[in-house]
Amino acid sequence: MGNRRKALCALLAAGTLALAACSSGTGIPALDREPGEADQWPGDKSQLANLDSQSVRFLVANGGADYFAVASADKQTACLFKFVDGEDSAAGGCGGAGGADAIVEVNTPETAMMLVRAGTDISHWEDAGWTRIHENVLVF
């Protein structure tokens, strides 16, 4: 292999490692960005027990509700919460942010929602009646 080719391979490998080192590994790009004005927890701060309150990220508004993601300090757990407009309480749940496509599915009498990793093929969930409202959020 020529020197130019070796240098190109080394550069590509270094770039891949740098990207991997910068990624949180949760599969939720919003958790990797800096917080903005919309990333304010609308509920009681006690709901964030054992979670990183600085990781709260607004994901999407849909059907009279706001959806938020939040992670644990070690980024091993990711959570999805839904706040209905005008209410302080939320429906939500947390799951392991490893390699599984579905991080957590939350089902209550009022809602069914799922937090999925970005880039997940959701066709089988869509066939079952789920709808994508955000790159990381499905609702039923």
Overall residue-averaged pLDDT value? 86
Major β-sheet strand ordering: 1-2-3-4
Strand content: 25-35%
Q: What is Rg?
A: 18 Å
Main structural class: alpha+beta
Percent of residues in helices comes to: 10-25%
Low-confidence stretches: 2-23
Terminal residue distance = 53 Å
**Biggest beta sheet attributes:** 4 strands, antiparallel
User: Number of helix segments?
Assistant: 2
Globally, the shape reads: globular
SSE ordering: HEEEEEEHEE
Number of strands: 8
Secondary-structure map:
Elements: H1 3-22, E1 57-62, E2 65-71, E3 77-84, E4 91-96, E5 102-107, E6 112-116, H2 123-127, E7 131-134, E8 137-139
Antiparallel strand pairs: 1-2, 2-3, 3-4, 5-6, 6-8, 7-8
What does this structure look like?
The chain is an alpha+beta fold and 140 residues long. The chain is 18% helix and 32% strand. It has helices at residues 3-22, 123-127; strands at residues 57-62, 65-71, 77-84, 91-96, 102-107, 112-116, 131-134, 137-139. Strands 1-2-3-4 form a 4-stranded antiparallel sheet, with no helix packed on it. A 4-stranded antiparallel sheet has the order 5-6-8-7, with no helix packed on it. The radius of gyration is 18 Å and the shape is globular. The protein starts with a helix and ends with a strand.
Question: What structural keywords apply?
Answer:
18% helix; 8 strands; 2 helices; disordered N terminus; 4-stranded antiparallel beta sheet; alpha+beta; 140 residues
Q: In a nutshell, what does this entry contain?
A:
This protein is an alpha+beta fold and 140 residues long. It has helices at 3-22, 123-127; strands at 57-62, 65-71, 77-84, 91-96, 102-107, 112-116, 131-134, 137-139.
